[in-house]
Amino acid sequence: MLFDETLKNLFLQSKNIAIIGAKDKAGQPVDNVGRYLIQAGFRVFPVHPVRENVWDLKTYRNLNEIQEPIDIVNLFRASEYCLAHAQEALRLTPLPKVFWMQQGISNMEAGKLLAAHGVKVVEDSCIMVDHARLLA
């Protein structure tokens, strides 16, 4: 896990966040987190293979469809999908600063792969909770 000061600096230096597994279903953790990040001033890029509009934002089928540099990839999918999404994130240019696996999600293989390419990794932690704790 990254130190608090490192996380705080990453938040301050980040603008664009892609949320994989985005959906605006009331009461779902991903909905709460997505709305929080938008309210906190981040540009959020929802990623979902089927949905076309989440949080009144254009929704992308995958990371590679996004034409903006992504600072943080925030993953809301089960651990067994982490490696595939890590590989997808490594095809982005420029690479994201952080690959964030939400609370309850971790994958050692994905973490090692991303770290080997200089991408910081956060596992099993809620981006909303950490942002609020460090910057609210």
Describe the structure.
The longest helix is centred in the first third of the chain and has 11 residues. With 136 residues, the protein is of the alpha/beta class. The model has no long low-confidence stretch (mean pLDDT 97). The protein has a single domain, classed as NAD(P)-binding Rossmann-like Domain (Rossmann fold, 3-Layer(aba) Sandwich). A five-stranded parallel beta sheet has the order 2-1-5-6-7, sandwiched between helices. Helix 1 packs across helix 5. The protein is built from five helices and seven strands.
Task: Give a quick precis of the structure.
With 136 residues, the protein is of the alpha/beta class. 35% of the residues lie in helices and 18% in strands.
- Give the count of structural domains: 1
Query: What Rg, in angstroms, do the CA atoms define?
Result: 13 Å
Helix content: 25-40%
Instruction: Characterize the overall form.
Output: globular
Distance between the termini: 20 Å
Overall structural class, as computed from helix and strand content, comes to alpha/beta
Instruction: Output the helix-strand order.
Output: HEHEEEEHEHEH
If strands are numbered along the chain, what order do they take across the biggest sheet?
2-1-5-6-7
What's the CATH architecture name?
3-Layer(aba) Sandwich
Largest sheet: 5 strands, parallel
User: DSSP helix count?
Assistant: 5
Using the coordinates shown, work out and report the CATH topology. Rossmann fold
Report low-confidence residues grouped into runs of 5 or more. none
Specify the CATH homologous superfamily: NAD(P)-binding Rossmann-like Domain
Percent strand equals 15-25%
CATH secondary-structure class: Alpha Beta
Give the total of beta strands.
7
